[in-house]
């Protein structure tokens, strides 16, 4: 009697090995994403390149310029669904490594002295003289952003491909937690390393790690090809996972007319706009408002990703075993709003800031652990790449525009004393972040109500019994 053939993804060892490889690559990507955040004070100091708050906000927002204005994320989703995870993942890794190297080159070899006249109001630069170093670094960050977001949607589809029916929320939670480890490393160690060596040293380290990440992903490609062959053997049909070849452009209509999908899209936009752009300025907030030493100020924002490392997989297990995904999103959004409201109040206490950052870390574990595994419940697998690409695209609008907005607000709220000392007021900026949180609460409640009517299954467990 012929033995029953199984897919490679039915093997726990194979599943978790694949998850480890792609999670490592994403972790390095997140390290580069936030490696400059603790360096804002050094970048804006007289002893450093002397960037302005507007220039730093422009650089931080440049992450999504190509994705947003040239629609690269949208096209990336189409490429993912048509070409598959192997081709798209390798392309993403190459873009990340190339962009990171350009950013390193800008800080190491481009002088901050020459400037260029720039008049692009919608990018936050209206009739401004901008350092060539800033423009070059922004170009690199934009190219890196294409790769990082493309890698993000690819890895998410990879996990759905390998873990559907096998604890997908836990797997996505572990991937998110590993990525947050990269963020934590950037926030915690970037400034001390830059102070001990050079401003560009942390970026060089991350670039070398991205090359290792590319090599690791090539190993995954071998595993993915074996998975596809085992799927052919089990199902008796050609498959690159079946869904990629079955995708048609006309399938996009099914995504566009899905109300639950759009609620998740805008919830993602608001929630992440209240977290990632905040982290870009959090180190400066700790220095300006709470009086933390600049060399160690990044350790307090680093609490946020360190907390998610442990909590995101835990909440993923809750979603897998018990369900309540929409409820988890409501609670996380409420915590986000509360934290930013507290940061806006005139309470100047470093211990209070630590408590708020811990709370924000819990919120940042709750929402992603429920939101990302909820998408496959709403969108079929063959359209999943495009669906995630649309979500990431809209998210990138926030990641691009919010840092520019906050940079200009902080510039306007900075007062210079007679002795040249500058005092930065974060109150208005924090109320902007709080507004994002409040709006996220409203959307998550509406999503919970819609789930009851449409029966998406967001409140149901993920794992097969």
Number of strands: 4
Radius of gyration: 22 Å
Structural class: mainly alpha
Major sheet summary line: 2 strands, antiparallel
Count of helix runs: 18
Shape: globular
Instruction: For the largest sheet, list the strands in their spatial order.
Output: 1-2
* Beta strand %: under 5%
Classify the helix fraction into a percent range. over 70%
List keywords for this structure.
465 residues, globular, two-stranded antiparallel ribbon, single chain, mainly alpha, 4 strands
What's the short story on this structure?
This protein is mainly α and 465 residues long.
How would you characterize the overall build of this protein?
With 465 residues, this protein is mainly alpha-helical. It has helices at 12-34, 40-44, 53-61, 65-69, 72-83, 85-109, 132-163, 168-196, 201-235, 243-246, 252-256, 259-273, 276-288, 303-321, 325-344, 350-378, 384-412, 427-454; strands at 115-120, 125-131, 414-416, 422-424. The strands form two sheets. Strands 1-2 form a two-stranded antiparallel sheet. A two-stranded antiparallel ribbon has the order 3-4. β1 and β2 (125-131) form a beta hairpin.
List the SSEs and their pairings.
Blueprint: H1 12-34, H2 40-44, H3 53-61, H4 65-69, H5 72-83, H6 85-109, E1 115-120, E2 125-131, H7 132-163, H8 168-196, H9 201-235, H10 243-246, H11 252-256, H12 259-273, H13 276-288, H14 303-321, H15 325-344, H16 350-378, H17 384-412, E3 414-416, E4 422-424, H18 427-454
Antiparallel strand pairs: 1-2, 3-4
Helix pairs in contact: 1-7, 1-8, 1-9, 3-7, 3-17, 5-6, 5-7, 5-17, 6-7, 6-9, 7-17, 8-14, 8-16, 12-16, 12-17, 12-18, 13-17, 14-16, 15-16, 15-18
């Amino acid at each position: 009697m012929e033995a029953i053939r199984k897919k490679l993804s039915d093997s726990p060892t194979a599943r978790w090995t694949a998850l480890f490889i792609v999670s490592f690559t994403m972790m390095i990507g997140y390290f580069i994403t936030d490696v400059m955040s603790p360096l804002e004070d050094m970048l804006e100091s007289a002893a450093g390149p002397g960037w302005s708050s507007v220039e730093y906000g422009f650089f931080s927002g440049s992450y999504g310029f190509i994705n947003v204005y040239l629609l690269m994320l949208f096209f990336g989703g189409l490429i993912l669904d048509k070409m598959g995870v192997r081709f798209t993942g390798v392309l993403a890794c190459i873009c990340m490594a190339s962009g990171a190297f350009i950013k390193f080159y800008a800080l190491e070899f481009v002088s901050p002295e020459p400037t260029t006249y720039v008049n692009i109001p919608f990018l936050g630069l209206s009739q401004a003289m901008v350092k060539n170093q800033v423009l070059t670094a922004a170009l690199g960050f934009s190219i890196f952003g294409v790769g990082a977001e493309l890698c993000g949607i690819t890895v998410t589809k990879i996990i759905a491909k390998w873990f559907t029916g096998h604890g997908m929320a836990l797997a996505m939670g572990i991937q998110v937690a590993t990525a947050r480890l990269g963020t934590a490393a950037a926030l915690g160690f970037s400034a001390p390393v830059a102070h001990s060596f050079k401003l560009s040293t942390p970026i060089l380290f991350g670039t070398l790690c991205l090359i290792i990440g590319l090599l690791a992903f090539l190993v995954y490609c071998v595993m993915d090809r074996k998975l596809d062959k085992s799927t052919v053997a089990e199902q008796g049909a050609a498959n690159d996972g079946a869904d990629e070849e079955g995708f048609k452009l006309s399938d996009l209509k099914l995504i566009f007319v899905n109300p639950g999908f759009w609620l998740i899209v805008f919830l993602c936009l608001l929630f992440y706009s209240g977290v990632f752009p905040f982290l870009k300025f959090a180190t400066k907030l700790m220095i300006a408002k709470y009086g933390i030493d600049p060399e160690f100020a990044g350790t307090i924002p680093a609490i946020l990703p360190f907390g998610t490392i442990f909590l995101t997989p835990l909440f993923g297990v809750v979603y897998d075993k018990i369900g309540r995904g929409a409820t988890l999103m409501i609670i996380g959004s409420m915590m986000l709003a509360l934290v930013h409201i507290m940061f806006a109040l005139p309470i100047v206490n470093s211990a209070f800031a630590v408590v708020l950052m811990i709370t924000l870390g819990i919120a940042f574990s709750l929402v992603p652990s429920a939101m990302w595994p909820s998408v496959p419940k709403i969108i079929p697998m063959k359209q999943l790449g495009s669906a995630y690409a649309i979500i990431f695209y809209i998210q990138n609008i926030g990641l691009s525009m919010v840092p520019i907005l906050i940079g200009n607000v902080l510039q306007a709220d900075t007062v210079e004393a007679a002795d040249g000392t500058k005092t930065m007021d974060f109150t208005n900026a924090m109320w902007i972040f709080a507004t994002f949180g409040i709006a996220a609460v409203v959307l998550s409640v509406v999503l919970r109500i819609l789930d009851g009517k449409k029966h998406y299954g967001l409140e149901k467990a993920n794992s097969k019994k």
